[in-house]
Amino acid sequence: MKPWRQLFAFPFRVFFVSAAAWAVLAVSLWALQVSGLLSLPLAYPPFLWHRHEMLFGFLNPAIAGFLLTAVCVWTGTERLHGPPLLLLWLVWLSGRVIATWGGQDAAGWGIAIDLAFLPLVALDAGRRIVGARQWRQLVVLMVIALLWLMQAGTLTRGPAIRGPAIYTDGALILAAALMLIIGGRITPTFSANWLRGRGEDPTRVRTLFPLELALLTSLFLLLIAALLEHAGALTVMAIVTALLTLARLGLWRGWLFRREPLLWILHLSLLWIPAALLLLAGHQVLGWPATAWQHALGIGAMGGLILGVMTRVALGHTGRPLQLPAGMVAAYGLIQVAALVRLLTVFLVVPWQWGIGVSAIAWVAAFALFLWRYLPVLWSPRADGKPG
User: Fold this and answer.
1) Does residue 189 belong to any structural domain of this protein?
2) How many CB atoms lie within 10 A of CB 287?
């Protein structure tokens, strides 16, 4: 099978490549745009384009790649592949092309196409989940539905005169919720399996249902507080959610997996979420810049976890050993550099131009390394000869 056809043999293949490629291209274009070296015919105002593309343009294909792959495993159903997958991917791609090069006259088309993508993903996943009566998976679809509403608010500004800021903040909180839900399933499971495979006690990694329920509740209340822009409630819920997340991560004992990059990247990325929430509380109480918590969550948590999940899923679902290719530990490290330098830039510890440049280069290099090492994996047949 030709490489481009193989990319459409399973959702994770084409959407992981797309997420990484857009991570490289969107940040490169933005760095050139803000430095004055490039003037793009954007469909949206520049900062709205940046917020939308780094959140929805990057996150949405990662969601599609993971969810439409995982739901086949959860429900035992046939994968989405071939022409239907190609059409879904073209919806995502068309949105990126119009938003970036379509000009303001094409904004309406860009919004319509962009807002079609997540419902199509949810429709395919939902019909499988409902058909298999896997009701516990519906919480993921609920979060995605709320995320879509935040995307709609971001692009259309909704009824609020205040503009799209509350919607992008709400979307970041929902992204954190999605990471904590999915991460809460795969991280302790993968970690316990690793201990079991080494002959160690897997029960050292623990989960507590009351803590899981409390965390979900606090995330919902945090979202409500953010949308209502209630500073006091937002501060309290950000701190409470951060402490609950730290308690949960403590039960998973991430330090036990410091010798296994495919695991420590998951634990470390999730650790950025409580850090971001504490920065959010600092923004409300101490007047810290909002960009601090936004970039801690967007770069450290979202960027790190997406990279970590893609590197592992791409190996497992192509029938390859869970052995990280050369150079990918450096990619994990570069994401941390990008997040830390961006925070230092926000707090004026390093000069703005220098900090933005270093952070952008580190981010681009991390995902470029993924493309270099994983494109041959993703456009090649499974190593075990199975379909997909």
Assistant:
1) yes
2) 8
Q: How far is CA 134 from the centre of its chain?
A: 24
Q: Which residues contact 4 (CB under 8 A, 6 or more apart)?
A: 379
pTM given for the model: 0.95
104: containing domain: 3-378
Amino acid of residue 27: V
Whether 384 is covered by a domain: the verdict is: no
Residue 61 has pLDDT above 50, yes or no: yes
Whether residue 385 is contained in a domain is answered as no
The angle at the Cα of 287, spanning 293 to 363, to the nearest 5 degrees, equals 25
Q: What are the residues whose beta carbons fall under 8 Å from the beta carbon of 365, sequence distance 6 or more?
A: 331, 334
Secondary structure class of 157 (helix, strand, coil): coil
pLDDT tens profile 1-51 = 677 789 999 999 999 999 999 999 999 999 999 888 889 999 999 989 999
Residue written as token pair 């590197």: 311
Tokens of 370: 């993924």
Structure tokens at 31: 């760095």
